[in-house]
Amino acid sequence: MNPLKMIKLTINDRSVEVAEGTTILEAAAQAGINIPTLCHHPELRKEGSCRVCVVEVEGARSLVASCVHPVMEGMVVRTNTDRVRWTRKNIIELLVAAHDRDCLTCDRNNNCELQRLAQDYGVREVRFPAAVRHDPPDCSSESIIRDTNKCILCGRCIRVCKDIQGVSALGLAFRGSRTKVGPAFNRGLANVACTNCGQCVAVCPVGALKERSAIDDVWKALNDKAKHVVVQVAPAVRAALGEEFGMREGSLVTGKMVAALRRLGFDRVFDTQFAADVTIMEEGHELLHRLENGGPLPLITSCSPGWIKYCEHFYPQLLANVSSCKSPQQIFGALVKTYYAENQGLDPKSIFSVSVMPCTAKKFEAARPEMARDGVRDVDAVLTTRELARMIREAGLDLPSLPEEEFDLPMGMSTGAGAIFGVTGGVMEAALRTVVETVTGKELRHIEFEAVRGFNGVKEATVAVGDRILRAAVVHGLANAGELLGRFCRGEVSYDFIEIMACPGGCIAGGGQPRSCSKETLQMRANALYREDLGKKVRKSHENPAVQEVYQKFLGKPLSEKSHHLLHTSYEKRSDL
Questions:
Q1: pLDDT in tens, 356-391
Q2: Looking at per-residue confidence, does 548 or 126 come out higher?
Q3: Residues 390, 534: one domain?
Q4: 183, 211, 239 — which closes off a domain?
Q5: Residue 54, SS3?
Q6: Is the dihedral of CA 384, 390, 392, 394 positive or negative?
Q7: Is residue 1 part of a domain?
Q8: CA 255, 537, 301, 526 torsion: positive or negative?
Q9: Percent of the chain with pLDDT over 70
């Protein structure tokens, strides 16, 4: 392998040496010099549309956008001249002039990249005529609200939707001062092939995209004495919630989170990881049934609602391959309104079931008509990690100072296998722990399946399951999923079992998580879930005593008639518009 060619240049009178192909922005960062950006995002294709990052390059006729301009040998760059600062400030003023400046009521107040730049560059007045839109917000989606009045046309949402997710639900429309971002033909997000994954929300630098809030509904239920309000919390939430309170990335705040939820007033605080263990029992046995008795292969996991909607739009021919098992969120909701209600002598209609999820698509999933029986929804309200943080702050609680408390039993008992559901490869690994031991009847010596871990877009593994070699694949990010499924449909690859997660990195990078541009942050969140797995006394789903009890006393066995009725569903083709 040829060594990288190194380029020498000067930035602000300092000699810098970087690899060929590096941009000025990247070179400056390596030299400890910060250049402001808006349209730039380290995980997205470079575009250079906002021009906030302009710098002077000796010999250039005009200022250049540092986020897209490559370094050259002997280049002389200045990032902080009067001309550069004046230009940046004018660009920021123009953006502010065209922006809805109702900051105090904005979802991104004190966490807005445009607001921060205006503060940093001393924008204290807007000298340009206001050019603010007055479009009504798009509230058609169950998951995401879109407000074009706050959009700064940075294009991040377009790039993540097209390049990372392969969906292209958003694009630029019109020209000049009328240009705006939105779905084709000015449709609402609910009327196009949006998967509700929320990656557009995660990368938006301002408040133009946000989750549809369920906070008011949850407060109302908590204050209704006739309601028995229970909450479940997904694995990835405990690995990221602390970031909202200034704690180090990757802090595992499970016990403090439970304490906070109790103090918010929930009657029972349960763990989605319990339902993840049930999911493994159902999905694992579904895989074994198809392998032994015939059925569409590969079996494709169904835990990610963003992936499910993507499949309905773009690969409906593979819906028979998708596991009929509901996601852990919905399995939990179904069991709360049946198994738990019976045990506690409660009317299912009096139970208000809340989930805290890292995912905006979970809001859409909970509202699907398939996820209700006799007019009773499995899950009544879905909060994102960010929404839970707001509720905790609103209640005057300081998360870092709260004591460590335990989940309520029995639906708060979970295994390490349930914990790793929150990271790409986790569902596959959890399933393999159970499937291999179920087939062989022998205890695994090593339960970590390293081949399915890591952040490669597509991971492949072969695993011995008794006398059979299981061909497995793990995919995260919908563009990666589309590429793999395209190869499968063309007959280029063959698998028995595929895990697909809509969000890059899995649930730890869900659209409802604390916003972060850093791969290092995602790795620390993943490490937190692997630590939780290692710290569990029981690390295999089929060994969870509470799960064993729910089958003995209520469900009978995996894939029983009762479990099919409560815990399984089906999906249908949707328009690809």
A1: 999 999 999 999 999 998 889 999 999 999 999 999
A2: 548
A3: yes
A4: 211
A5: strand
A6: negative
A7: no
A8: positive
A9: 99
Calpha distance 180→172 (Å, rounded): 6
pLDDT confidence bin for 273, thresholds 50/70/90: very high
Provide the b/e sequence for 90-126 (b: ≥16 CB within 10 Å): ebbbbbbbbbbbebeebbbeebbbbbebbeebebeee
207 and 223 part of one domain:
no
CATH of the domain at 163: 3.30.70.20
- Give me the domain span that covers residue 400: 216-567
The answer to whether the pTM exceeds 0.85 is yes
User: Do 168 and 305 reside in the same domain of the chain?
Assistant: no
What CATH number is given to the structural domain containing 346?
3.40.50.1780
Q: Is pLDDT above 80 for 46?
A: yes
Distance CA 527, CA 431 (A): 19
Structure token digits, residue 5: 């060619």
Boundary (domain end) residue, out of 211, 233, 266: 211
Q: Are strands 372-373 and 351-357 parallel, antiparallel or unpaired?
A: unpaired
Band of the pLDDT at 537, cuts 50, 70, 90?
A: very high
- Residue 238 domain-assigned (yes or no): yes
**pLDDT tens by residue, 112-143:** 999 999 999 999 988 888 777 889 999 999 99
- The pLDDT, as a whole number, for residue 1 is 53
Q: Is residue 86 part of a domain?
A: no
pLDDT tens, position by position, 69-99: 999 999 999 999 999 999 999 999 999 998 9
Find all residues with CB under 8 Å of 187, minimum gap 6, and list them. Answer: 577
Distance, in Å, from the CA atom of 147 to the CA atom of 399, rounded to the nearest integer, reads 31
Contact predicate 212/224, CB 8 Å = no
The Cα angle at residue 473 between residues 471 and 476, in degrees rounded to 5: 170
Q: How many domains does the chain have?
A: 3
Same domain, 191 and 247: no
Do the strands 299-300 and 376-377 form a parallel or antiparallel pair, or are they unpaired?
unpaired
Active site residues: 283, 286, 303, 323, 362, 365, 370, 507
Domain annotation covers residue 21? yes
Structure tokens at 436: 């291999």
